[in-house]
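Folds abound. A case:
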Amino acid sequence: MAVGPRVSEWRKLPMSLTELCIDTTLRCGQAFRWRKVEDEWHCTLQGRILSLKQDATHLHYRTTWPKQTTAPGGPAAPLTPPPSSLPSPAPDQTSTPEDDEDDDDTLSLLTTYFNLPISLSALYTTWSAADPNFARRAPSFTGIRILNQPAWEALVAFICSSNNNISRISSMVTNLCLHYGPYIGTTTTTTSGSEPLHDFPSPSALAGDGVEQKLRALGFGYRARYIAQTAQIINAKGEGWLDGLRNPLSPPLGGGGGGGGGGRLPNPQPTYKAAHEALLSLPGVGPKVADCVCLMGLGWAEAVPVDTHVWQIATRDYKFGGGGKGSKTKTLNRAIHDAVGDHFRGIWGEYAGWAQSVLFTANLKSFARQAEGGGEGDGDGEEGKVEEEVKDVKEVKEVVVEVVKKEMTTGDKPTALRSTMRVTKRKVVIKTEVDEETDDMPIADVKVAATRTSKRRRVRA
């Protein structure tokens, strides 16, 4: 006999906001499938819908198990995508306190997913003692934990992050789940109605024929090929290849490694550097994406992903490379990426990637108001880094700005810079903006060409 989705009671776990703040952790560019509706966060994970909410003293959680054709506890029916018009669901069944087995499993899942055994307040104390800049900014950004996500999901999500922003990455990941992931259930609210929720697709689901073409049609651009090719490679390597790159001290989320079949582990005693190099062999994976996967999917806490925001932090707050104007126009090549990571590892130690995530979040425009209470920040992020270069009109007649990277329907990379020019009585101001929360963009030189004024037509001050 078919039964409807089974919904547990709300449970609560003692949790201070200094140890975990879900409103910050779940929207700072780590995970892209969590949705906040009213005061609750929802996401599918390990075959269930997790719902979270938080107050000053507790993390509250609830589990919704998908519709089954057998009694709870028996094997679930195959999960399939819903039709375009969702059928009326069977009546929900609220679990009772006797449903301890499932509740214990969810608590274990949350403990692993949020890395709860690690004392975050102790880490903040250590970083603040070692770094005055961290001590100045951290009070406004407590409770930011690095998530322990499935390695396969982290890999695909951060391939999507290349030259992209958080909102668009979230949209891409949602489309991946809707079109290729198993249907788990729906959320229903008074404000947004019903929304179908799918789990993350497996490598085999994204390794089939026609995936690249469909993803291009869905707006993935050049990333479509990377995702399809990487899925084929991971699927062929077999079960456990990705988790064979995992930090042995960091348990995987729910077991499994993101692959089909029975592959061998690539290294019986993996290291961070070995994991990073192995990931670089995959299509669409550069140093920054590899470090994101190492940090948030494989448990290497020392990994420091370096994108434009982290480069800005390094040059502005830590005077990396001299901190001068010239340091802002370098391309983020592999050598600079590694040097910045080593610099921060020297300051913050073995959990450098965790500390970096706090300052990264503080540097996002979407958290600018929150940053007001935690030291000075220039609100970079969703609306981009803004630089102004001023030229005297006497010296400049014509300004030519080369703008790099324009995304076309053919799948080229997106525009990374926007430039405008305004002329005042004595000045020409050239404003160059990095597009909103764009990751992996080379910090390219913006070339400004000036020609001498003609003798026949001089510019008067």
